[in-house]
Write a structure and sequence with these properties.
The structure holds 2 protein chains of 2 kinds. Chain A is mainly β. Chain A has no helices and 11 strands. In chain B, 35% of the residues are buried. Classes of the chains: A mainly beta, B mainly beta.
Chain lengths: 115, 110
C-alpha cells in the first residue's frame, strides 16, 4: 500500500491567494483527518470525516478554511484568502475507525509558506 | 488546549541508554497512543494502550498507563542513534478524535 498521499509537498504563495491541499487516504479506511502543525500551537485537529461526512470541524480556524471529501479516496483543504499566519505543515491522516480512536496513518505533509 | 502534555520537552542521551518520556492528560480516555516523528516527516504510530490495560510491550518499547493518575510513560530501551525523533502521546476520548500533546524531542548521541 502506498500509504496516505498528500500533494503538494511544498507550497509557497502570496498573501491573498487561494491554496488547495490534497489528500488520498489509504484504500479501505473510512475516516480522514486534517491536522495543522506549528511550533507555537503543536498539532491541531482541523476537521475529520467519517464515511465522507464531516463529523467535527470545530478546529477549523475561520471561514477562510474549508474542507471537502467528495468520495472515499480524495479530500481537499482549501484556504481562501491565505494569510501569513496560515504558514504551517498540514497533515492528512486516515484510519479504519470503529468509533473508539483507532491508530492514524499520516501522510508526509504539505509545508505551506504564505508570504 | 492540548489534552496530553509530554515531559520532558527535550531529552538527550547516549546510545545504549534507556529513554523515558511521560505524558499526562486531563479527561477520561478510551485509549492512549504514542507516535514518532522524524524531522520533516509525518507521524508514525508506535503503540496503543487501552484504558483497561496497564502495560504493553512492542520490541524495545514499553508503555505504561495509570488511569488513576491520568498519566502514561514510554520507555525505549537500549536506544540507538536512529531513535532520534520527536515523540508524541495522543489521547482518544470520544468518537474517532485524537488529541496530541506537544511532544518530547529525543536526541540519541552515538
Amino acid at each position: 500500500d502506498a500509504g496516505v498521499i498528500q500533494s503538494p509537498r511544498h507550497e509557497v504563495t502570496e498573501m491573498g491567494q487561494e491554496v488547495t491541499l490534497r489528500c488520498k487516504p489509504i484504500s479501505g479506511h473510512n475516516s480522514l483527518f486534517w491536522y495543522r502543525q506549528t511550533m507555537m500551537r503543536g498539532l491541531e485537529l482541523l476537521i475529520y470525516f467519517n464515511n465522507n461526512v464531516p463529523i467535527d470541524d470545530s478546529g477549523m480556524p475561520e471561514d477562510r478554511f474549508s474542507a471537502k471529501m467528495p468520495n472515499a479516496s480524495f479530500s481537499t483543504l482549501k484556504i481562501q484568502p491565505s494569510e501569513p499566519r496560515d504558514s504551517a505543515v498540514y497533515f492528512c491522516a486516515s484510519s479504519f475507525s470503529q468509533g473508539s480512536g483507532e491508530k492514524l496513518f499520516f501522510g508526509s505533509g504539505t509545508q505551506l509558506s504564505v508570504l | 488546549s492540548q489534552q496530553g502534555e509530554e515531559d520532558p520537552q527535550a531529552l538527550s542521551i547516549q546510545e545504549g541508554e534507556n529513554a523515558t518520556m511521560n505524558c499526562s492528560y486531563k479527561t477520561s480516555i478510551n485509549n492512549l497512543q504514542w507516535y514518532r516523528q522524524n524531522s520533516g516527516r509525518g507521524l508514525v504510530h508506535l503503540i496503543l494502550i487501552r484504558s483497561n490495560e496497564r502495560e504493553k510491550h512492542s520490541g524495545r518499547l514499553r508503555v505504561t498507563l495509570d488511569t488513576s493518575k491520568k498519566s502514561s510513560s514510554l520507555l525505549i530501551t537500549a536506544s540507538r542513534a536512529a531513535d532520534t525523533a520527536s515523540y508524541f502521546c495522543a489521547t482518544a476520548t470520544s468518537g474517532s478524535r485524537l488529541t496530541f500533546g506537544e511532544g518530547t524531542q529525543l536526541t540519541v548521541n552515538p
